[in-house]
Amino acid sequence: MDLYDEDLSENKFFRSLADKFPNLFDVATCNRCTICVPCVGSLLGFKFSKENIDSHVLVPVEEKPCCFVTVNGKELTIQSNVVTRGNGFTLTDPIPVLFEETFFNANDESYMVLCIAQPLDGATAVGDSQSKDSVLNSFTDYTTFLWGETGGEKNKKLVDQAIGSFIGRLHHLERESLTKHIDATSDLFTKAMQIVLKNRHLKKPAFQDSALMENVKIAVEAYVLHCVYKPLFAGICSCLAAHDEQLNKITRNLHELQLRDVGVRLEFCRNIPRARKELGYLMSYSTPLGKLNCLKRAVRSLMQPVQRANQTGNPLALTTDDLLPMLIFLVVKMEMPNWWANLTYMTSFHFAKSSNHDEYGFYLACLEAALEHVGAGQMEALMDGVETAQACFFSQ
């Protein structure tokens, strides 16, 4: 099973099933059906109709292990983490199961939810749906979005050639500054954008629709940086080696650090494990946006309201005064060998600034403040770091 994770309870498909089709959701969960949820990055162009939702609610076939029938009568099998579609489906190519998760219904009975790589039914061509809600998160989405139209293969070949040339030149940048790496990668992104927008199926609508243009930029950046990630990130790590070595030396000496040592309130300690789990996936992402969303999920996990210790009154809401100590604790405990390289990659190599860039800016400013605190040995002056994070955010 691939290394992939997302919060299925927040997945747009799962939320649509629960909120827009409550009767189907109640029947499915009460009867402990298996629900297939397409990963968030595959929902671009998906039509959230009842027919398409029905195709993802599975009932097991008696005396036929691994065989299922959907609530609208279509057949499929699930074996070795692969879904194979049969009678009733238009397409029959296999779909990987990314991971599975156990949920519980109103009667506290378990039912299985499978996160799958793409919808079983109901997906449309990229050009058919370009709303502001379009989501591009997987490498398959990027390639389909950019090269799915007629003539796309020609442009893909040109972009791949530009990527190949860039990788060939990277060794010349080994002793160069970080700025040289940023400028060279920015030039590659610009060149790839120019090639992609030669496609008449994308160019005209993209210039008429800012949301579509944003998706084009995100897809180009993600495709290009995924392809060059290993050699490029190695170069970034080399440029930031001194900073990371200094930070690592300090964190090793703080291996016995406890939450109370950095002033984390008792009530918020329960948010730490989920955030730590989220940050643990940071190195599994190869694009700046992938890492940014990972950081976003981690910070949001920390910011979840919690019940007061005395169980009375409204839940406690996290403030920036609480957030920074928690991030400092995670920086120390995560044993991440290249924090500064990751921060720089997210900050300086995200050329396709998305509509929620200001939100990402806040998360990056908070992480940078935590790294600065630990790196400077300022474990007691936490309030200074809060002011630094706020100043970085509001000055953008």
Automatic annotation (TrEMBL):
Residue intervals of the VPS9 domain: 241-383
One term of GO molecular function: SNARE binding
One GO biological process term: neuron projection morphogenesis
SMART domains: VPS9
GO cellular-component term (any): late endosome
Pfam families: VPS9 (PF02204)
Protein name (record): VPS9 domain-containing protein
